[in-house]
Amino acid sequence: MSKIIAVEHLTLDGVMQAPGRTDEDIRDGFAHGGWAHRHDDPVQAEVMGRHMAANRGALLLGRRTYEDFAGYWPRQVGNPMADALDKTEKFVASRTGSGPLAWQNSTWLCGDAVTAVPELRRREPDRNLVVLGSGDLLRSLMRHDLVDEYLLLIHPLVLGSGRRLFDGVALGGLRTTDTVTTGTGVVITTYRRG
């Protein structure tokens, strides 16, 4: 059966909100957007490239993350990451979304995600579903014990505010399967349900 793999940038205090850009997610007055880029380095790029190659499958995104990605990545002409994301099938979970999706290879995931995601896994048993960002969706999946693996990029940074990955989620034990520390101090750790 396919796995659901969460790939998330986090601060030491667990914040996952807006790692990419200052205007990425300003909900609740969040003013620290773009915090992850100061720690980019070749080790991080190499680890993430290996992970992407090993876990080819489909993306599973919440509506807000999908809209953010769809407004950014298709415009990044000549960028290998953009090319890979364009070609990847994308399933978009939303309680309110309908109508056509503009970004190629994108499909609405109909119904409640907690019901629809296990059905998708049964239909596509050989393809992993990778969740990027999508905090609300991810926390919902976590509350129902549907996430099999976490690839967490933990940045040496404390923000003190922002939406956190594990808010409202009671997790059981996780087993560490791999850890790499980058030259900028990001700890990239893979955890599996234990």
Automatic annotation (TrEMBL):
Gene3D superfamilies per record: Dihydrofolate Reductase, subunit A (3.40.430.10)
Gene Ontology BP annotations: riboflavin biosynthetic process
Domain Bacterial bifunctional deaminase-reductase C-terminal, first and last residues per copy: 3-187
Coiled-coil region list: none
InterPro entries noted in UniProt: DHFR-like_dom_sf (IPR024072), RibDG_C (IPR002734), Riboflavin_Biosynth_HTPR (IPR050765)
Entry GO MF terms: 5-amino-6-(5-phosphoribosylamino)uracil reductase activity
Protein name: Dihydrofolate reductase family protein
Lineage: Bacteria, Bacillati, Actinomycetota, Actinomycetes, Mycobacteriales
